[in-house]
Predict the structure.
Amino acid sequence: WLGSLKYLVPHQAYMLQTKLPHTFSFPNPDLLNARMENLESVHAIAPWNVNPNDFANTMSVTMSLNICPEAIDATQDYIGAFVGTECRGYIEPTYVSSLGSYRFFLTVYANTSSEIVTFKYFDASAAKEYPVQQSLVFVNDQITGTLSDPFKVDLTGSVTCNSLSINDQLTESSVGIYPNPFTNSLKIKLTNVDVN
């Protein structure tokens, strides 16, 4: 199993898609009367809040991000979905070892179709949000992206893999570019910058 779903909660709705006919039984009858936890507490450290119970519709998005795996913290970084300034879902990355990269298995919530959904990436190491260039139109029950062909997103401002970790350390005196002007090649020297 690959994805962000770690367990099923009684009395909640799930959408299951299979290529072949299968039988699936849930929940265990003994769990039907179990007391449920509030869904808002599932991601206590996330930078945004959303209550899935406020929304009637969902859309699933499998995403990949344009930065190298080393820049992603799988336990504290998130991608969030937004309509305007309201968070409509967020998820931490899942490392897919067979691909050597991360995927974000995001559920987006809404009550109406055709809303424009934008995205933000939260980098916990810098405690910053980065806007994402791409957006989607919300379509109820739509599945966008797959494990092998994810919805690819780019951070606004062409933030690259290393710039997430060294961006705040760069000053005018720590970067040397020579020769200036240059024609065929150039050298960039970074001083007093930790790129690890």
The helical segments are 163-166. Confidence is low (pLDDT under 50) at residues 35-44, 163-169. The two ends are 32 Å apart (CA to CA).
